[in-house]
Amino acid sequence: MSLAAYACHPAQSRGRRHAEPPAPTRDAFQRDRDRIVHSTAFRRLVYKTQVFLNHEGDLFRTRLTHSLEVAQLGRSIARALRINEDLVEAIALAHDLGHTPFGHAGQDALNACMTGHGGFEHNLQSLRVVDALEHRYPQYDGLNLSFETREGILKHCSRANAERIEATEPQGVARRFLDRTQPALEAQLCNLADAIAYNAHDIDDGVRSGLISVEQLAEVELFERYRREALAEHPQLQDRRVLYETIRRMLSAQVYDVIDATRAALETLAPVDADAVRKAPPVVAFSATMQAQSDELKRFLFRNLYRHPQVTQTTDQAQQVVRELFEAYLERGDEMPASYGDRHDRHRAVADYIAGMTDRFAMREHERLTGRRGIA
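The structure assignment produced for this chain is given below.
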């Protein structure tokens, strides 16, 4: 398939921070994807929380399975829009590399611990992972990914952090947060594929956990429409197959909606290259109707799943584990590996070390350092 003019073409990449000769059989974005897949941080995602902690069940999503689902959805949409599938896959697989153990609870706790020391944000941490914290190559720290992949990884960035990055990398990946411009289409697509994936799989995991029910979901238009449609076509369908078929139809509808809405926006904009997209308003989007339905589903999940008393109880325990780990390592730097304990900026070193932990390693370390089991 030939790429559209507005796609990111690997031959036109803005390159890597450290110059390297091209690979003989892979283009720049394929090489990025492969480096991500072989990284230590990527393997750790298998034991990092999405919503439910890893020890709560073998079938709940983790950060790894979530990233794979984002990549699958992203590639499907990218192919239809004739934008770069390999770049979409690389961004999708890397977007959560900097996430803490215990999901957003861990991130919030670590951000609070870093108040006055630059804070903590997992998108920025993902960039730190691929730029500095992976130690795999003799010539440089990090994975030395291409500009376009790094641009997509940095989904959010405060102005203060953008200014700090810009000071060391002029006109680099943080510049758009100062100029108020957009990333390439591939990065925009990953942002939306992320939301589509977690809304769908959080329904599945929420029902599997027993914290939400199909009956409750009847109040959500996007879900109920496709549940009724599935039962009308397959009236004998029962149990989890109803749920799976409903989610499958929801996903398909959202994918087709993004493709149609984005094609219409591209026809109006008529961008001549990837940089023209960066200077335009956001292009990859739902239709207004689908956006409203997606927002309704997101509100339902926040109200009924993410803020469920059982989830918030575990969240509170997880945050306490992170806070106590932070305090222990800050006081006793020799409890961390030397590569962290010997660093001048102790606060950032502790944040980097904790952010790289899996759920179960964090729980083991907490019990070792405090003598208490932090999460029941």
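Interim note for the steering committee: The CA atoms of residues 146 and 332 lie 37 Å apart. The first helix runs from residue 28 to 37.
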